[in-house]
């Protein structure tokens, strides 16, 4: 069942088609819906992608994020136009299409490229007028949806784990030392090759881009590794590449976990909250991976984060 109103989908596809044909009169016709979620609708026509951003997103913040992507084309995929347009009350942006990571070929996952791009992003000079990275706010929204889910045995351990986090990780207080440019929602689905199938990898999706704690961008692979969902070899590849590229989120040598523990816990809770909410909404039991993430939350609630007291000061 389509979760987005029909007129938005139809008109967004028309916008994508018009933008594609404006770029090339000889472009082949062909449309596809790449994502259809309440927080984002993405439609492709030929080599052009149109995205309807989440409702209520701040136009000035989105424009600022688009400008950042335009200024750093070797790290972020630049938009086709520097400003969003309004469509049915939603802000819409246009992008060139790139080749995504192949989900059916995990051995080819570009962990080194992702880490190197992150390190370069984190070393990018920032200005005072940039928006705040929205990672903690996104985690807080996932937990808010979980609270609305209704009775389920998995809700309590996830909320207990959430309660152990310092206020900044729950979006209840400013982030400590938020002076680094961060992606805010890093995972392998946020990389594409452009301009060709064998071109360089670039980061996409600027919705959460902004200044913040750089460890948040390493938190999802760190959490997967801690939960046993990412093999140690792949985590080592990612972390080593990030360090070799001069990434500032962790020390160049030694234990990275003092910098990653709180963000990784927050991303684990976010993942579990989304999983439980989706399972309840679909009327199905948790699968094996979802249960394992909830189990980690249960254990987290008994072991306080390494940095909780420090960040709470």
Structural account:
The structure is a single chain. This protein is α+β, with helices and mostly antiparallel strands. It folds into two domains: 6-97, Phosphorylase Kinase, domain 1, CATH 3.30.200; 106-312, Aminoglycoside 3'-phosphotransferase, Chain: A, domain 2 (Alpha-Beta Complex). The protein is 43% helix and 13% strand. It is built from ten helices and ten strands. The strands form three sheets. It has a five-stranded antiparallel sheet with strand order 1-2-3-5-4, with helices on one face. A three-stranded antiparallel sheet has the order 6-8-9, covered by helices on one side. A two-stranded antiparallel ribbon has the order 7-10. A hairpin with a 7-residue loop joins β8 and β9 (201-203). The longest helix is centred in the last third of the chain and has 26 residues, at 257-282. The termini are far apart. The model is unreliable at 307-313 (pLDDT under 50).
Q: Measured on Cα atoms, how large is the radius of gyration?
A: 20 Å
| CATH fold-type name of the largest domain | Aminoglycoside 3'-phosphotransferase, Chain: A, domain 2
**C-alpha geometry:** globular
Percentage beta strand: 5-15%
Structural class: alpha+beta
Number of helices: 10
Strand order of the largest sheet: 1-2-3-5-4
What composes the largest sheet?
5 strands, antiparallel
Number of domains: 2
Cα distance spanning the termini: 47 Å
In short:
This protein has 313 residues and is of the alpha+beta class. It has helices at residues 6-23, 59-71, 111-122, 135-147, 155-163, 215-226, 232-244, 257-282, 288-300, 308-312, and strands at residues 31-37, 40-45, 48-52, 85-87, 90-96, 99-100, 180-182, 191-193, 201-203, 210-212.
